[in-house]
Amino acid sequence: MRIRVLGCSGGIGGSHLRTTSLLVDDDILIDAGTGVGDLSIAELARIDHVFVTHSHLDHIACLPLMIDTVGELRTRPLTVWTSAPTLEVLRRHIFNWSIWPDFTEIPSVERPFMCFRELRVGDEIDMGNRAIRVLPAQHTVPAVGYAVRGPGGTLAFSGDTTVCDEFWDAVNALPDLRHLIIETAFPDRDRQLAVMSRHLCPDMLAGELEKLRHEADIYITHLKPSQMDITMREIAETLGSRSPRMLRNNHVFDF
């Protein structure tokens, strides 16, 4: 199994900052942020499933454009998987004919370019030699994380979350956890903002990682572009023994 980071930033800018999206092999996306826009049309057309963590724009920005671009090139609908509250937001506020066409009805209700599938925390979707498990998360809107399991181990992704004991209970129950991708959006000087926006800062991250029972490689995602250096410096000072690394675009996990 191969997971390629298409985007992992908390913002955009220049040639290297893209918002959240992970490409699993060549047919599954975890989130559909601006990093998806770097894929070729042929690569976009090979994607059959999109697993969305939550409804914020930095995680769904390319979903409407992607389905508009490749819908007619596909022989079956693109399946968008997410929680019921997030599905409702996508239906009501994105694919609503005002912001964007409803591709669950195009070219017809019987043969649409896109379909929605509801997920609940704890669900595990079998994808042949891979499986996607839904993890709990806590954010300003209903949100989930995901664990991607293949023959060589498991990668867990927090999505956007604040302090969440249930997330760690679920992560600690995963078999053969190899990699953990967890968000830290703000430096400690903005702790109040992190708490208000239900993200993490380094000090909060340190408390959360005390709950991790696996020996896994830890990668930091969702850093705010103007604060990346200070946030990673604080993480290194606070969590040096765990050696967390900054996730970067085009990082590839092979396992």
Characterization of the model:
Residues 18-204 form the Metallo-beta-lactamase domain. This is Beta-lactamase domain protein. GO terms for molecular function: 3',5'-cyclic-AMP phosphodiesterase activity; 3',5'-cyclic-GMP phosphodiesterase activity. With 255 residues, the protein is an alpha/beta fold. It folds into two domains: 1-119, Metallo-beta-lactamase, Chain A (4-Layer Sandwich), CATH 3.60.15.10; 123-246, Ribonuclease Z/Hydroxyacylglutathione hydrolase-like (Metallo-beta-lactamase, Chain A), CATH 3.60.15. The protein contains eight helices and 14 strands. It has helices spanning 41-45, 57-60, 63-70, 84-94, 165-172, 191-197, 202-209, 228-239; strands spanning 2-7, 21-24, 28-30, 49-51, 78-83, 114-119, 124-126, 131-136, 144-150, 153-157, 177-183, 217-221, 245-246, 252-254. The strands form two sheets. It has a seven-stranded mixed β-sheet. Strands 7-8-9-10-11-12-13 form a seven-stranded mixed β-sheet, covered by helices on one side. Helix 7 (202-209) runs parallel beside helix 8. It is globular and about 55 Å long. The termini are close together.
